[in-house]
Write a structure and sequence with these properties.
The chain has about 140 residues and is α+β, with helices and mostly antiparallel strands. The protein has a single domain, classed as OB fold (Dihydrolipoamide Acetyltransferase, E2P), CATH 2.40.50. It is built from 1 helix and 8 strands. The strands form 2 sheets. It has a 5-stranded mixed β-barrel with strand order 2-3-4-8-5. A 3-stranded antiparallel β-sheet has the order 1-6-7, with no helix packed on it. A hairpin with a 2-residue loop joins β3 and β4. It starts with a helix and ends with a strand.
């Protein structure tokens, strides 16, 4: 009887996990316009997915942190950042929060895809579209 209960609860847990995976939505942020910049910082993985560049600094000093995003639909530069989590990197790209920025957000939830676009002075939306990246050091402060 205990074995049957264990098997039944295990199957229920697997079924719930599969249902949760179907219910999860995925989002892609694409920076389409913004100020060109080169910054260095530490790559961190976000708990909900994606990456952040923490302790970012450029030629004008400290600029804070950026949520790293794609520059266009075909961009695969973000995929290369997995190997640089915890490393100090230099990133060249476009910052959406520095003047006239434009970002697209595409969210997929099952079979539904929602697209939205934000334009203008995007202060408070620190997205950096990654054009290129290179590792500077294997450690971060």
């Amino acid at each position: 009887m205990k074995l049957g209960f264990f098997i039944a609860t295990s199957l229920l847990a697997v079924s719930l996990a599969a249902a949760q995976d179907r219910d999860k939505s995925t989002s892609r942020v694409i920076v389409e316009d913004g100020k060109e910049m080169t910054v260095t910082g530490c790559v961190q993985r976000n708990p909900e997915g994606g990456y952040t560049l923490a302790h970012a600094a450029g030629k004008d000093g400290v600029v804070g942190s950026y949520i790293l995003a794609r520059l266009d639909d075909d961009d695969d530069e973000l995929d290369d950042l997995e190997e640089h989590v915890g490393h100090r990197v230099e990133i060249k790209g476009k910052a959406a929060d520095r003047g006239d920025g434009k970002i697209k957000v595409e969210t997929e939830n099952g079979k539904t895809v929602t697209k939205s676009e934000v334009k203008g002075d995007l202060a408070g939306l620190p997205f950096l579209g990654v054009k290129s990246s290179r590792m500077i050091a294997t450690v971060c402060p």
